[in-house]
UniProtKB/TrEMBL annotation:
InterPro entries: Adhesion/Biosynth-related, FAS1_dom_sf, FAS1_domain. It comes from Sphingobacterium corticis. Pfam families: Fasciclin. SMART domains: FAS1 (SM00554). This is Fasciclin domain-containing protein.
Amino acid sequence: MKKSTLFGAALLALALSTQTGYVQAQQKEKTVTVGGAPMYPSKTIVENAVNSKDHTTLVAAVKAAGLVETLSGKGPFTVFAPTNAAFDLLPAGTVENLVKPENKSTLTSVLTYHVIPGKLDSKALWKKLDKDGKAELTTVQGEKLTVWKKDKDLYIKDAKGGDAKVSIADVHQSNGVIHVIDHVLMP
């Protein structure tokens, strides 16, 4: 056998074993299903979000705002991720208007209002609650959100007084954690 053929075969075997090892490692990860897709803790927020059929509007908005690179970065971030149904609750035409290039700064403000610096899973959020069951968090956008509890559920109150319920908590990512919410938060 020629050295080049042997070398090529060795490279192919290495590539296949590496790919197989990666797939096996992913299969062993503890995942949460969001929007019909498993969310892998070894992937970034963006790598997972693009697979959720419940978050296509959010992903399109993140792309339009130019935040893909940021949310693919090291982080860590805590993201309150509104579903497509949450965006559908906004007044007609709101999303279409926000994703226009001339409204990029407003869109960026709305989206970064859903992001908290650091990794706060539900356990960490519960620990932050005061004796009245509330905690204030400062967003990447700079304004405050209020986390509050009702029975065993966590809610997020925005600056306009709107509430969003955390419907799926603790979707761990390599660069943070996502909590799926049922309303869009407005600064």
